[in-house]
Write a structure and sequence with these properties.
Helix content: 25-40%
Largest sheet: 5 strands, mixed
Structural class: alpha/beta
Radius of gyration: 20 Å
Number of helices: 10
Strand order of the largest sheet: 2-1-3-4-6
Number of strands: 14
Order of helices and strands: HEEHEHEEEEEHEHEHEHEEEHHH
Shape: globular
Length: about 300
Amino acid sequence: MKKLGNPEIFDNDSECPKTLWGQKFRNTRLVFRKKDGKLEFHTYGGDGRPEAFISQIRGADQAVGLDDFDYVRLYTTDNNPSYDMVESSPEPVLSQCYIDINAPCYSSHAYTQEQFHKDLIICPDFNFSKWLGFDYAKTYDKIISLNLNTNPIRKFFWRGRAKGGDNYLKRASLCALSLEHSQHIDAFHVQNRNDKNYVTLEDAFKNYKYMIDPSHKGFKGRLKYLMLGGRLIFLQCHIHKCFYEKEMHPWKHYIPLESDFSDLIEKFHWAESHPEECDEIINRTLSYAKKTFRINNINLLWRNILNGY
């Protein structure tokens, strides 16, 4: 994506542009407004996520109509902007994730202790859009229309990137456990569709009984799809959360897991021996997800954010 507008006029010293971390926030920042009925965007382009958000915002404007609003600053990274970025910004600051200071594992993340800011505004994440050939609305319809196998494989399922440094340690740990407990876990590192262990998310929902989502350094982008899949979700403790997680609770919408997976096999046996409770959790989560993630509701959320902050 090419640079749009004049992003330089929105540069802020709190973004620490001389550091690689700061450059990530600066280069993927999107500042926009609607003035005299016309949307206006300013961004350096970054990794393409600003483009995904522009698609969302234009779509919301076409679908539900946005009133004029003054500039807002959206950081499109996997992590929330720092306290200083929010505090020093002349515009309201948006992010696709926030730090949950009430999460049980919060205290173990020392580097985030001073990053929470109460004024940070949480918006839908970047893939509620049409982006790089991906159409969210069609994917939503496809997942909720799946015919699930009534006698699924009784294992935890996970596929994704598990190699590449400290950011992937929890995922790598899950893959290692899969080799040790192959009768209970089916988890493998995959880089792309050509990898031998690649499985589509649709096939995973159809054929596996349990979905597991290990923690990562940023927010959980696939969680929304897991919630739509009609399977029981096992969720590892994490602190970077999306807007819809404010209404989610352990044992009500998912089965919680310890940060080191020490309770994984114990939770498997619990689920196997409590089918009625598991069905209640699945149905509750699916009902919440179908309503929350319907594209019209996402468009309305954007209108509430941009015309009501």
